[in-house]
Amino acid sequence: MPVRLHCEAHGVTVRLGDGLASLTAAANGGLTARTDHNLEIAADLVILSIGVRPETQLAKAAALTIGPRGGIVVDSHMRTSDPAIWAVGDAVEISDVVTASAALVPLAGPANRQARIAAASIAGRAAGFRGVQGTAVCGVMGLTIASTGASEKSLRRAGLGDFQAVYLHPGHHVGYYPGAKPIHLKLLFRPSDGRVLGAQAVGEAGVERRIDTIAMAIQMRATVDDLAEAELCYAPQYGAAKDPVNLAGMIAQNARNQDSPLAGWSEIDGADVLILDVRESFEWHAGHFERAVHIPLGQLRDRLGELPKDRPILVHCAVGLRAHIAVRILRQRGFDARNLSGGWTTWRHVEAAAESARAYLPEPRAVPPEPTG
Ligand SMILES: Cc1cc2nc3c(=O)[nH]c(=O)nc-3n(C[C@H](O)[C@H](O)[C@H](O)COP(=O)(O)OP(=O)(O)OC[C@H]3O[C@@H](n4cnc5c(N)ncnc54)[C@H](O)[C@@H]3O)c2cc1C
User: Mind listing the pLDDT tens digit for each residue in 45-70?
Assistant: First the structure.
């Protein structure tokens, strides 16, 4: 959602949930694009940015095995089904580091590393390619979007349902040093063993550095404990003593050890949940859930009697820190409390996405989706 808002702030109309149905020549010499929802858009130039498919004609002619994703099947030495032929790059299908599924990742990094492995293999060395994880970065009018490893969608597609998401919105450097920009970071990890599965981040500064760090962690099969312990660069103009990567690991640790379990924003409509907003009054008045109970964190210890012990309490603040403290207070006193991951900031992104969908799609969605990026 931050990407969409950023594009719209720069005068770009973004239409999601629709597709291109046809392109026809217009009377004025331009083009008319028609969408699946029958919207006509006049255009001078149309750029289709819809992914790539491997060109495997040559491989098929050589009777090489082609995989389920349409790429040339290779082993970890980049050798094809014909032992005298190696293949690398966009045309090969290779194992995903996280999901172990066959993956097509048409990026220059994997292609170059695979070429080195193939050359070593041809020369008789036992080098092996570790797999792909889709580490990628993109710039959009001053905003950086980056990701590595699995997304919720790819985990579900691979049948790997044991994962949890952490949302956080720290500054790219400490707030007391001028110019801090928020990084909206999502980390996916496996609660059962803490393994880091994927991460996505958006922001104006410092985004790719955090994703690169997590990318290395994923390749080394690291856990959220490793992220929490990572020793990273810090001086005020560059980062924070608890870097966003450390914070993501610490939040996941707190969730795993039940100190501060997390809740997702899709859970707020649960039948018997109570939503507790621990922000200050001025924040509450700027926007809140109608059905939330408002007790600012500073008053919580004196007002515990207002809260039920027989219902799950989902606590939120602006980004998650005060809610974490509230969850600790409540859990130490026997309440079933969890922290709504990423706080009101995450909710605003979820809501804005749902509002956009409602405004555009013929059928409004009943439940706002969890953000995917
Ligand atoms: C516009 C653009 C921007 C990109 N930007 C990025 C980026 O920022 N970051 C990133 O990671 N990736 C980027 N990529 C993707 C990246 O370029 C590819 O993933 C990478 O080049 C793949 O390497 P490759 O060796 O598989 O294929 P290629 O680099 O395409 O090399 C294949 C070569 O084989 C030749 N060839 C094809 N058929 C035959 C034949 N029958 N006989 C002989 N030669 C043949 C082609 O002419 C070509 O030279 C970009 C791609 C494009 C198109």
Answer: 999 998 899 999 999 999 999 999 99
- Asked if residue 368 is part of any domain, the answer here is no
Q: Has residue 199 been placed in a domain? A: yes
**Low-confidence spans in the chain with pLDDT less than 70:** 355-373
Does the beta carbon of 90 lie inside 6 Å of ligand 1?
A: yes
User: Is residue 138 in contact with ligand 1, taking CB distance under 6 Å?
Assistant: no
Q: State in Å: Cα 192 to ligand 1 middle.
A: 39
Side chain identity at 130, as an amino acid letter? R
Check: pTM over 0.70? Answer yes or no.
Answer: yes
- 230 CA to centre of ligand 1 in angstroms: 35
Residues 6+ apart with CB under 8 A from 271: none
Buried b (16+ CB within 10 A) or exposed e, 1-25: bbbebbeeeeeeeeeeeeeeeeeee
Instruction: Specify whether 243 is located in the same domain as 168.
Output: yes
Looking at the CA of residue 111, tell me the nearest atom of ligand 1: 23
